[in-house]
Amino acid sequence: MAHLPHIAILSTGGTIVSSGATPTQMTGYSISSFSVDDLLASVPALNTVARISAHPVSNIDSMSMTSGIWIKLAGAIQSLSENPDISGFVITHGTDTMDETAYFLHLTLKTDKPVVITGAMRPSSAISADGPLNLLNAVRVAADPAARAMGVLICLNDRILCARDAVKTDPCNAQTFESRDWGVLGLIAGEHIRFLRAPLRSLRFHSTSPALTSSRDMRTTTALSSKPLSRPTPAASSIRALATARFMPERKMP
């Protein structure tokens, strides 16, 4: 076990830990008694890929996501990234605002360690629940040295996408995330991960602003917004405004 990479899993809630009344209920489910610990226990193969540590951040449906939780999540990852024993990060998240969270982290985190966001389109109680395999694949990607310095990645349904390009296209289909302009970054087939391209914009950690870890950061961002994110609001504009408020510029073209 000691030779396996250490992957930190940060949980925020979402469909991946939700349950329905019956195995055929695919909509209208809710977060109940199923937890991220239950999810990890349901995927014993994780222990053959990495050493896992769990770090709960929230336990909400992602329509209830707030910028305060964004800052808490970013601060946790930034702090944990200082630990040389941790090789990468996986975030479990609801899909409704997954692309917004991924893009925010892509703009603000200052680490070249892999950061992979995953979730599920079917609840944990459903026939053919997709959460366990999505989680296993996300850990595989986070443990892959080839995923370093690619920014934040979204990993669902055997596909790897760049946070900058990904968009949710369907409320129910398991292959909901697409990168319409540029295509996927990579594909997953069992234990095999194949990256097809690198992100268009390279990672350059040139900002001298402080990491998102202080209590002042928490208070400032909570004051900015403690309300759930609003889908009608242009996501890129609101995310860019919040990132600018933290004096963390968007990564520049190579």
Short overview:
This protein is an alpha/beta fold and 254 residues long. The protein has helices at residues 36-41, 46-49, 67-80, 98-108, 131-142, 215-224, 235-245; strands spanning 6-13, 18-19, 30-31, 51-60, 86-92, 115-118, 152-156, 159-162, 167-168, 177-178, 186-189, 192-195. The protein has an eight-stranded mixed β-sheet.
Report the radius of gyration as a whole number of Å: 17 Å
Q: Which structural class best describes the helix and strand composition?
A: alpha/beta
Largest sheet: 8 strands, mixed
Helix content: 25-40%
Taking pLDDT < 50 over at least 5 consecutive residues as the criterion, the unreliable ranges are 204-210, 213-225, 244-254
* Residues in β-strands, percent: 15-25%
Overall residue-averaged pLDDT value = 81
Number of helices: 7
Strand order of the largest sheet: 4-1-5-6-7-8-11-12
Distance between the termini: 39 Å
- Tell me how many strands there are: 12
What sort of overall outline do the alpha carbons produce when their principal axes are compared? Answer: globular
Q: H/E element string?
A: EEEHHEHEHEHEEEEEEHH
Q: Explain this structure to me?
A:
With 254 residues, the protein is an alpha/beta fold. It contains 7 helices and 12 strands. The protein has helices spanning 36-41, 46-49, 67-80, 98-108, 131-142, 215-224, 235-245, and strands at 6-13, 18-19, 30-31, 51-60, 86-92, 115-118, 152-156, 159-162, 167-168, 177-178, 186-189, 192-195. The strands form 3 sheets. Strands 4-1-5-6-7-8-11-12 form an 8-stranded mixed sheet. It has a two-stranded antiparallel sheet with strand order 2-3. A two-stranded antiparallel sheet has the order 9-10. β6 (115-118), α5 (131-142) and β7 (152-156) form a beta-alpha-beta unit. α3 packs antiparallel against α6 and α4 runs parallel beside α7 (235-245). Mean pLDDT is 81; it is low at 204-210, 213-225 and 244-254.
